[in-house]
């Protein structure tokens, strides 16, 4: 018999897939996996999936890592070490570690779960929530789990509503009037419309809910299929659509909005342009993503840092930041900063100018430098007088310039620029 206070979330675990590089972020992921990329001044991308799970009441989590995982693992150890086993709380980090054979790493998203079946079994859970660790959004997962139980589905798939002409970039679903999935298509040229609205398509968020006993059996069967790619979107979900019951869950039903009537916020920050835009949008007067919401906080590793400091007040040497986010430990010394986001321990020097700049931690900006529409990677030292963002053709000789005109600056790029001077 179910206990009165036995929430579905207490019988569930979150399994976060965080092993991908995110190659579209170019050199920003040369030394870290995409989920470990910094975001929003203080957090990492993976913090959003983990925070959603925690805020939803889920206290059992696992994170599967693979590509250059050290930064991600260190962040989780420092920022997510508050779980206590004596309270039946866990956060396990599960690197690809040749657990099946000496020459086999994680070969697909489903395989990452399959290789850890024994660990998941030890949790004693009833439901499992599969999450992508590389998107920015707020969502109450317990509402999705409750819908899964209510419909009796074999799998429930979290879905975004996107314009049909843009849906070819996603895994998309055709559904009936009851949101039962009738077909699951990976990046189709002609996406299906929705019942009652042929201009919109349901796209997969890479979020799935299963009863663990059901998924466990599915994974065992899939592991024996030589032709399978052992992938949720490519193999597991289409099989269930054809042979079982797959249900679509609309993100709009469980998203956590920043204000009543606000649109549902979800971002794939997988390109330089999208990453830069999502960060710069936080400088807006009323940003769609509310990082100030104490009812649904984004938890992270809180680096000890003193307050931000602004110094000098002369006509052409004034430390100011307008429509910007400036994190702790920053020293803005005689620099003019506009519509920019500075992470922890950024130091800028006199007569420099930053506009629409996303500056990652521990960056130093030299005197008279001018940076416009840029992303500056962690630890970069911008030389005195460097100008980036005003001449794309010249910038492209040394830096990565995106299709949208955003320039990425990394340590090797600055070294090449300096050597050419």
What's the layout of helices and strands?
Blueprint lengths: L11 E6 L20 E2 L3 E2 L1 H10 L4 E6 L4 H10 L10 E6 L13 H6 L2 H7 L3 E6 L2 E3 L3 H11 L3 E9 L7 E5 L5 E6 L13 E12 H12 L8 H12 L2 E5 L15 E3 L3 H10 L27 E3 L1 E2 L2 E2 L1 E3 L2 E2 L4 E3 L2 E3 L2 E2 L4 E2 L4 E7 L4 E2 L4 E7 L4 E2 L4 E2 L3 H4 L4 E2 L5 E3 L1 H9 L2
Parallel strand pairs: 1-4, 1-6, 4-5, 8-12, 14-19, 17-20, 18-21, 19-22, 20-23, 21-23, 22-24, 23-25, 24-26, 25-27, 25-29
Antiparallel strand pairs: 2-3, 6-11, 7-13, 8-11, 9-10, 9-11, 15-16, 28-29
Overview of this structure, please?
It catalyses: alpha-D-glucose 1-phosphate + ATP + H(+) = ADP-alpha-D-glucose + diphosphate. Belongs to the bacterial/plant glucose-1-phosphate adenylyltransferase family. This protein is of the alpha/beta class and 421 residues long. The chain has 2 domains: 8-283, Spore Coat Polysaccharide Biosynthesis Protein SpsA, Chain A (Alpha-Beta Complex), CATH 3.90.550; 309-420, 3 Solenoid (UDP N-Acetylglucosamine Acyltransferase, domain 1). Helix content is 22%, strand content 28%. The chain is built from 10 helices and 29 strands. Strands 1, 4, 5, 6, 8, 9, 10, 11 and 12 form a 9-stranded mixed sheet that branches. A hairpin with a 3-residue loop joins strand 2 (38-39) and strand 3 (43-44). The radius of gyration is 23 Å and the shape is globular. The protein starts with 11 loop residues before the first strand and ends with a helix.
């Amino acid at each position: 018999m179910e206990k009165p206070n036995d929430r579905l979330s207490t019988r569930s675990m979150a399994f976060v897939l965080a092993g991908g590089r995110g190659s579209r972020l170019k050199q920003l992921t040369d030394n870290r996996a995409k989920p470990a990329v910094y975001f929003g001044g203080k957090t990492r991308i993976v913090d959003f999936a983990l925070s959603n799970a925690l805020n939803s009441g889920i206290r059992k989590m696992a994170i599967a890592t693979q590509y250059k995982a050290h930064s991600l693992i260190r962040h989780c150890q420092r920022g997510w070490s508050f779980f206590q086993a004596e309270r039946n709380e866990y956060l396990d980090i599960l690197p690809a570690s040749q657990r099946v054979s000496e020459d086999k790493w994680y070969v697909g998203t489903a395989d990452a779960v399959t290789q850890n079946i024994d660990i998941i079994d030890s949790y004693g859970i009833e439901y499992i929530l599969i999450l992508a660790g590389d998107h920015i959004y707020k969502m109450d997962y317990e509402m999705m789990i409750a819908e899964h139980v209510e419909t009796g589905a074999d799998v429930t798939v979290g879905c975004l509503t996107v314009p049909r002409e843009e849906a070819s970039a996603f895994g998309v679903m055709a559904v009936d009037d009851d949101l039962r999935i009738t077909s699951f298509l990976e990046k189709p040229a002609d996406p299906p419309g929705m019942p009652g609205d042929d201009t919109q398509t349901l796209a997969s968020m890479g979020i799935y809910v299963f009863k663990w006993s059901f998924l466990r059996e599915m994974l065992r069967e899939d592991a024996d299929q030589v032709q399978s790619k052992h992938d949720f979107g490519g193999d597991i979900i289409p099989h269930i659509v054809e042979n079982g019951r797959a249900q679509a869950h609309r993100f709009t039903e469980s998203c956590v909005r920043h204000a009543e009537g606000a649109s549902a916020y979800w971002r794939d920050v997988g390109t330089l342009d999208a990453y830069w835009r999502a960060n710069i949008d936080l400088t807006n007067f009323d940003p769609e993503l509310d990082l100030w919401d104490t009812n649904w906080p984004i938890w992270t590793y809180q680096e000890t840092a003193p307050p931000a400091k602004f110094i000098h007040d002369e006509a052409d040497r004034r430390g100011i930041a307008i429509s910007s986010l400036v994190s702790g430990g920053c020293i803005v010394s005689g620099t003019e900063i506009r519509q920019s986001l500075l992470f922890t321990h950024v130091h800028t020097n006199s007569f420099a100018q930053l506009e629409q700049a996303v500056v990652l931690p521990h960056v130093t900006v030299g005197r008279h430098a001018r940076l416009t529409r840029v992303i500056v990677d962690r630890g970069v030292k911008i030389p005195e007088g460097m100008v980036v963002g005003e001449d794309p053709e010249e910038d492209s000789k040394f830096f990565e310039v995106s299709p949208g005109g955003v320039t990425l600056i990394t340590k090797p790029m600055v070294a090449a620029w300096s050597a050419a001077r």
